[in-house]
Design a protein that fits this description.
globular, eight-stranded parallel β-sheet, 205 residues
Length: 205
């Protein structure tokens, strides 16, 4: 089911929960208690923030491996960023699909996202939802090997972080600024240096 992202939370702060080793369950609990807007990536939407506003994934392999666990997510929007739609069997929860624009550093079109990794696509998605004047806060964006969970049986190649993911986010950063969306990286020690790094306590509600 193709999805065009609505400007649902204009000017609000949206928290993106990533997979880095620094991600803390207590931070997710605090956000949930405060009713904060959350985009949870992959496992974060199944175990840390099952009521997140959006669970976003990209990898078809992740969907195949976790299809039997998707009932853990209780939030309203299960979304896949990818070039093709994700088929679902009768009775299964539908997956909203948003296309990826591999040629762009940032997509202003609300039916597409850019980015070389799900984290980057989540930032572009959050920018659509909050629009100019909004803010995006990143948690668990270590951008180096290591995860807070062991749910995936595969590892991201170490050189992908610098060679692909970080370089794509550096290219996206000036477009986000021109679009009017502030991005802060609440991941102390993160290798991602194109957004201001802040202590989580500065941005958590």
């Amino acid at each position: 089911m193709a999805w065009t992202v609505p400007r649902a939370w204009p000017g609000e702060t949206i928290y993106i929960l990533g997979g880095g080793a620094s991600m803390r369950p207590a931070h997710a609990d605090r956000l949930a208690s405060a009713g904060a807007r959350m985009v949870a990536i992959n496992e974060a939407g199944l175990t840390l923030a099952p009521d997140a506003d959006i669970l976003l994934f990209s990898d078809r392999r992740w969907y195949t491996e976790n299809r039997h666990r998707l009932g853990l997510y209780r939030g309203p929007r299960l979304v896949r960023a990818g070039r093709t739609q994700m088929p679902t069997a009768p009775g299964e929860r539908p997956v909203l699909g948003i296309r990826t624009d591999a040629r762009a550093a940032f997509s202003e079109a609300p039916d597409a996202v850019a980015g070389a990794c799900t984290g980057g696509r989540a930032i572009n998605l959050a920018a659509h939802v909050t629009g100019p004047g909004g803010r995006v806060a990143l948690l668990g964006f270590d951008m180096r090997p290591g995860r807070w969970h062991r749910a995936h049986p595969w590892e991201t190649p170490a050189d992908n972080y610098a060679a692909r993911f970080i370089s794509a986010l550096r290219a996206m950063a000036p477009h986000l600024a021109r679009f009017g969306v502030e991005v802060v990286n609440a991941t102390p020690g993160s290798a991602l240096d194109c957004f201001p790094i802040v202590d989580p306590e500065e941005v958590l509600p």
